[in-house]
Amino acid sequence: MDERVALVTGAGQGVGRAIALALARQGAKIVIVNDYVEERARRVAEEVAAMDIGVQGVPYQANVSLWTDVTRMIDDVGSKFGSVDVLVNNAGNAGQTVEDVIGWSREFVETDPDHWRAWVDVNFLAPMYMTRAVLPHMIRHEWGRIINVISEAGRVGEPRLVVYSGAKAGTAGFSRALAKEVGRYRITVNCVALGTIDTPSVSSVVGDATLLKKMSARYPLKRIGQPEDVSGLVAFLASDNASWITGQTYGVNGGYATLP
Ligand SMILES: NC(=O)c1ccc[n+]([C@@H]2O[C@H](COP(=O)([O-])OP(=O)(O)OC[C@H]3O[C@@H](n4cnc5c(N)ncnc54)[C@H](O)[C@@H]3O)[C@@H](O)[C@H]2O)c1
């Protein structure tokens, strides 16, 4: 990944953090660590710098659910670093705390349209905002990698997370269509669909031994995933070795969903 500029959204913790570190390890020139919590972005950018392998970690505070924030960030990154070559749309769920994410789970009939907005914004609109903003750079360079982190909820459907499931499915559909438009510029667009991963957003599950045992039993591999179970595949999809792979969704799910 010599000379590549990578940007990972929501990279201040969890899966995004592991992806940022994996892209740095793989030799990106610059890894932009986005998060809307500034302190989280800063800490992970420092971790990148501390690897001491010549990769620059750059924290960037921006809310990717807002088009104005996205354009500000990409204009700024473009003028400082020339382009974004690898975009990982990882920011998801909704909110900053476990309570925001897990506490919101309820049956669709009990939800109110006012509650849907935050979930649709970050899980569906944000990947489109980011992609729209970076595509002119990638098209100009005739090279690009866009990797969208979705959930198996978007493929098999998850009760009590119906809006989230729909938003993630939307991102998968968007990715498939876009892949067909931009392939001629050597830009690939793929998704990774996750099962439960041990991150701060699911700490209420992981911290409860009974719940964790019950959850792990649902997986053929008898454990939930770790962020590093995801980051290797994302780093591969970002590499030149994946240059003939586009429009696909790969499950990283411990065997939870076995789709053809
Ligand atoms: N953890 C899981 O079990 C799981 C399962 C399936 C899919 N996923 C998906 O994987 C991705 C990462 O999940 P995670 O568990 O690591 O999440 P997390 O909630 O632990 O971390 C997400 C990070 O993104 C940041 N963020 C959230 N919204 C943002 C926004 N609008 N702009 C900028 N930053 C924002 C948060 O501050 C946080 O630091 C998400 O897209 C999520 O939907 C996670």
UniProtKB/TrEMBL annotation:
Entry's Gene Ontology molecular function annotations: oxidoreductase activity
Keywords: Lipid metabolism, Oxidoreductase, Steroid metabolism
Record Gene3D superfamilies: NAD(P)-binding Rossmann-like Domain (3.40.50.720)
Pfam families: adh_short_C2
Coiled coil: none
GO biological process: monocarboxylic acid metabolic process; steroid metabolic process
InterPro entries found in the cross-reference section: NAD(P)-bd_dom_sf, Sc_DH/Rdtase_CS, SDR, SDR_fam
Family per similarity comment: Belongs to the short-chain dehydrogenases/reductases (SDR) family.
Name of the protein described by the UniProt record: Oxidoreductase
Species of origin: Sulfobacillus acidophilus
